[in-house]
Design goal:
By secondary structure, the chain is α/β, with parallel strands linked by helices. The protein folds into 3 domains: 192 residues, no CATH class; 159 residues, Heat Shock Protein 90; 138 residues, Rossmann fold (3-Layer(aba) Sandwich). Strands 1, 2, 3, 4, 5, 6 and 7 form a 7-stranded mixed β-sheet that branches. A 5-stranded parallel β-sheet has the order 11-10-12-13-14, sandwiched between helices. The radius of gyration is 42 Å and the shape is elongated.
């Protein structure tokens, strides 16, 4: 109970302006002092006419307290309205005309109190005017009383004046002491709040400076990281052209171009992912995948990287349920980032090991997996793990880390994906010894394993035999690429080079002829959104049921939402992820 009262009191202080709070406290102290004084005088049986004046003053002070809280921006005016009547009406009346007043009573103390109130409570023009008027008034009533002593109503009791002076001294001293004490308390609180605000501002400034430095370093690293694969692509293309008749050499160049393109694409995807994370729009997509195939794919890609750095690399996958439902693209991204980091930061002849095991559990719908990545690399300090590893653009200051290419955003992205999946990540590391990353993830079991895929050259290809697909694309090279990918599925592909042609082809086709439309977005004339709306508005049975998939380089969440608003069923980012394309096609064709 007491704590609740303290909490409410603290909240009231926090949200109340300090000047108003000081005003309220001073008025409260004056009201309490006046109450005590009235009670004492009443029980002593003296100053009956003075009691009425003090009672009226008590009511007046309460009214001033209420009005000040109703008009909080007028606090200085209310200070003056409190002090002026006291010094110019109440005290002069009590000194000259009230019973027991006069120079021998406690009124000189109260007159002094009035001057002190002016000094404590008012400021600016109010202080100047009220101080001058109060001093003049006090001097005038003292002089008037001196020359007209018959005005005073003396009490024939010397002990009364002793009591009156004693009461006046004690009440005035106590009131002034409490007011000054509380003003100091408020000023101390205000000073502390200002100091805290300054320290917070300084910390924010320091953080902003660190962020700017980190982003500057990031841009410098990013420029280098982009130029490196681009240089490889351009260079390998020239070498392939020069050795066009040497099939092995051309194949070698194409493999390196593919690897560099993948590196460049991953870099750009990381930048997009950071934008999504900062806007809190990172979303997972549930699809069918095989944990074994995912592991084999990662092993094939990273084994070459490990060989290039002369790092021993081994990967095992021992699972009972390999067919799962989840975002395999994001899971692969996390695993690729952590494992590739292990390879990058492990010196030659070191070792990186990956194990994927299924945890024992009795659940018919879900399976849990432990993904353990260990390396004998440079390691990290506990301070870096706790405070920096998941912050974007930050990298260890170890010179062995700084000499390795990197942007410092991979682990930040990975942590966001892991959190979105409801998974956990534990890190253990020792500088100079190595690191251990442990991921625990829970995934749905796929009880409807796809049967419309076939493996060609180690790649799962969707069998879309008998399906008719309309591809709308204005760029020759993009059309050639998507057509080549689709023809591997044995689907029949019809090409349209702009939105108007696509609308015309679909409108003239038999109802139900097309099974899927792949729609580019940015085209001359009508864009893909307009084409989708036009198709949906056609007066034919299949206009609302035909699946339309957007193909666009615009990969942000708002672009996906825009595609759905236009009546499209799915969104595919360029460059085309073949696995994602086949998964979406499978969904539209066979589910």
């Amino acid at each position: 109970m007491v704590q609740k009262i303290k909490d409410r009191f603290g909240k009231y202080i926090a949200r109340t302006d300090s000047q108003l709070w000081i005003y309220n406290t001073i008025i409260l102290i004056e009201i309490l002092a006046l109450t005590i004084l009235v009670a004492i005088e009443f029980f002593m049986g003296y100053e009956q006419d003075g009691l009425l004046v003090m009672a009226a003053l008590w009511v007046y002070l309460v009214a001033m307290a209420l009005l000040a809280n109703y008009y909080p921006k007028k606090v200085q005016l209310f200070y003056a309205l409190v002090v002026a009547p006291v010094n110019l009406v109440v005290f002069p009346f009590m000194f000259l005309w009230a019973e027991g007043g006069g120079i021998e009573s406690g009124m000189p103390v109260w007159l002094t109190f009035g001057i002190l109130l002016v000094c404590i409570m008012t400021s600016g023009i109010y202080f100047k005017i009220l101080l001058a008027v109060t001093v003049v008034t006090d001097v005038m009533i003292i002089l008037y009383g001196y020359f007209h002593q018959e005005t005073f109503k003396y009490i024939d009791n010397d002990f009364y004046y002793y009591q009156d002076n004693l009461i006046a001294v004690l009440v005035v001293a106590g009131t002034i002491g409490l007011i000054l004490k509380y003003q100091r308390y408020v000023q101390t609180r205000q000073t502390k709040r200002i100091e805290d605000a300054v320290m917070e501002a300084e910390q924010e400034k320091l953080n902003a400076q660190k962020a700017n430095v980190a982003k500057t370093n990031f841009l410098a690293n990013m420029s280098h990281d982009i130029r490196t694969p681009m240089n490889a692509i351009v260079g390998m293309t020239d070498i392939a052209k020069y050795n066009i008749d040497d099939k092995e050499k051309v194949q070698e160049c194409l493999n390196k171009i593919t690897a560099s393109s993948t590196q460049l694409l991953n870099l750009l995807n990381n930048i997009l992912d950071m934008s999504e994370i900062e806007m809190d729009t990172l979303k997972l997509k549930e699809g069918q995948f095989s944990m074994t195939e995912l592991a084999e794919n990662i092993q094939v890609v990273l084994a070459q990287m490990a060989r290039g750095r002369k790092v021993e690399f081994e990967m095992t996958c021992d699972v009972e349920h390999e067919n799962l439902l989840g975002d395999s693209v994001r899971l692969r991204q996390v695993m690729m980032n952590i494992i590739s980091n292990g390879i990058k930061y492990t010196d030659a002849f070191g070792k990186v090991s990956v194990s994927i095991t299924e945890a024992a559990m009795n659940d018919s719908d879900y399976a849990e997996f432990d993904i353990i990545v260990t390396d004998t690399g440079v390691g990290m300090t506990q301070e870096f793990i706790e405070n920096h590893i998941f912050k974007p653009f930050e990298r260890s200051e170890d010179r062995r880390v700084q000499k390795v290419e990197g942007s410092g955003i991979g682990m930040s992205i990975s942590k966001s994906i892991i959190d979105a999946m409801g998974a956990t990540l534990a890190i253990e590391s020792t500088v100079g010894v190595g690191s251990r990353f442990s991921i625990h993830v829970r995934l749905k079991k796929d009880k409807n394993v796809q049967k419309n895929f076939k493996v060609e050259d180690g790649i799962a290809i969707l069998d879309a035999s008998g399906k008719n697909i309309l591809v709308v694309e204005d760029n020759d090279m993009n059309m050639e690429i998507i057509k080549a990918i689709l023809e591997r599925t044995h689907a029949h592909v019809i090409c349209a080079w702009d939105a108007e042609e696509a609308i015309d082809i679909f409108g003239k086709s038999k109802e139900g002829h097309f099974d899927l439309i792949l729609m580019d977005i940015q085209m001359p004339g009508m864009d893909g959104y307009g084409a989708a709306r036009a198709i949906r508005s056609m007066d034919r049975k299949d206009s609302m049921s035909i699946p339309i998939m957007a193909m666009t380089a615009n990969a942000f969440a708002q672009d996906v939402e825009k595609a759905f608003d236009a009546g499209m069923n799915a969104h595919l980012a360029k460059p085309i992820d073949v696995d994602e394309l086949f998964q979406k096609m499978y969904h539209f064709f066979y589910t």
